[in-house]
Amino acid sequence: MESSEGRAEGSGRAPRVLVVGGGIAGLGAAQRLCRHPAFPQLRVLEATARAGGRIRSERCFGGVVELGAHWIHGPSQGNPVFQLAAKYQLLREKDLSEENQLTETGGHVGLPSVSYGSSGVSVSRELVVEMASLFYGLIDQTREFLHMADAPVPSVGEYLKKEIRQRAASWPEDEETRKLKLAVLNSFFNVECCVSGTHSMDLVALVPFGEYTVLPGLDCTFPGGYQGLTNHIMASLPEDVIVFNKPVKTVHWNGSFKEASSLGETFPVLVECEDGACFPAHHVIVTVPLGFLKEHLDTFFEPPLPTEKAEAIRKMGFGTNNKIFLEFEEPFWEPDCQYIQVVWEDTSPLEDVTSELRHIWFKKLIGFLVLPSFDRSVHVLCGFIAGLESEFMESLSDEDVLLSLTQVLRRVTGNAQLPAPRSVLRSRWHSAPYTRGSYSYVAVGSTGDDIDQLAQPLPTDGAEAQLQILFAGEATHRTFYSTTHGALLSGWREADRLIALRDPQAQLPGPWL
């Protein structure tokens, strides 16, 4: 047995709390609990060598790039990630401005600066703007089914396709222009797959889609890296709270576990790690990604989770969105260019793809964001790609990815002599063993109730030992799933739940729902 020496043990009555996972949900919960005198015995068990989870900033290309979370979505007063980032002085002046905080984007990605077609000819701005207006108008309509008794179709994708089919029938242009319009729409579908973290919008449930809440504010980034935020939270914790390289194998609960050094005290939970170490506890906050839970559902909890919770985990959606960074000697794009869209002229959202992934994986790429220059000699593009194509990309070598994307860029720019990028860096979230994907969505067959079901602590009956296992993480927040602010709020929510149990008179800062 591992002992907890080095921390204030308090009396034998101080509850022992373990947090599984050192992402922003786990760190947020730990920070909240460490500030309360009732919790002197706290440990965070992190499977990897670093904290931050799906927030992952790397020094590269002479600056910092985000392999994980990229933006603060909706940086405004109701967003705790924005508030913390402002408090820690991690943001630019303009991102803190009142004007930025009040901007309503509707959660939509900005328009491309330029749209390259696969024939090597740029697509007219007018056509792209027209299709963006159609697509995002339909996306806004999908959010209105939330309060309706029944939906016309099960998924967001089917609804969008049904509406596009009807409108396309009356487009006045020639066949070639109509095909180009559908190809541009297909690119917007691919963008939406990245936003939702899904392979296809046909997998995203229509009725609950509007439950996701978009906060006001113009999405912003961290000039020094998103990880500055988690580093600040970590720095506020007592120094030996986080245990790294400690993957958990099984959470044993509803038991009566003893520890030699605890003078006969028993604990309802025992956390068993892959290396054989065991940590008894009164309460465990599980913050692991939904992708990991899905993969280890049968072995991670002993006894197994109640049927309705296990069902919720199986039904909820969890997909992959990856980034591919390309560094160039010289930019081939205009100085004010921010987002390069790639349009494959032979694609349409109304037609299914039949080719093998290895031949067409790169067609799922939405194009490239131009990263702000770290210095004048560094020119970096960041491509986004979601779904099965993204997972296939993870299986390729850096050389293969670089070669494929060089061919794509030569083709779409019409410049066969375009120099190849000098280096490539990419994320591989599906291959990451403790993540197994990027973030959650509400899949066809599930609803927001499944998110609430996942967030419910165990045991659910009136057992003597209350709140043995608590659940946090982006996938447990009904209206902010898939975001860092949803994850942080969920960690605070579970910390507050424990504080309320152990100190019923405590003044909680909430409501964090």
From TrEMBL:
Query: Which UniProt keyword terms apply here?
Result: Cytoplasm, FAD, Flavoprotein, Oxidoreductase
Q: Which residues form the Amine oxidase domain?
A: 24-499
A GO term, aspect molecular function: polyamine oxidase activity
Compartments annotated for it: namely: Cytoplasm
Mind telling me which GO cellular component terms the entry cites?
cytoplasm
Q: What is its main location?
A: cytoplasm
**What processes does the entry annotate via GO biological process terms?**
spermidine catabolic process
Q: What is one Pfam family matched by this protein?
A: Amino_oxidase
TM region positions: none
The superkingdom listed in its UniProt entry is Eukaryota
Which cofactors, by name? Answer: FAD
The UniProt similarity line reads: Belongs to the flavin monoamine oxidase family.
Its recorded name reads Peroxisomal N(1)-acetyl-spermine/spermidine oxidase isoform X1
Q: What organism does the record attribute this protein to? A: Mustela putorius furo
Q: Name the gene that codes for it.
A: LOC101685018
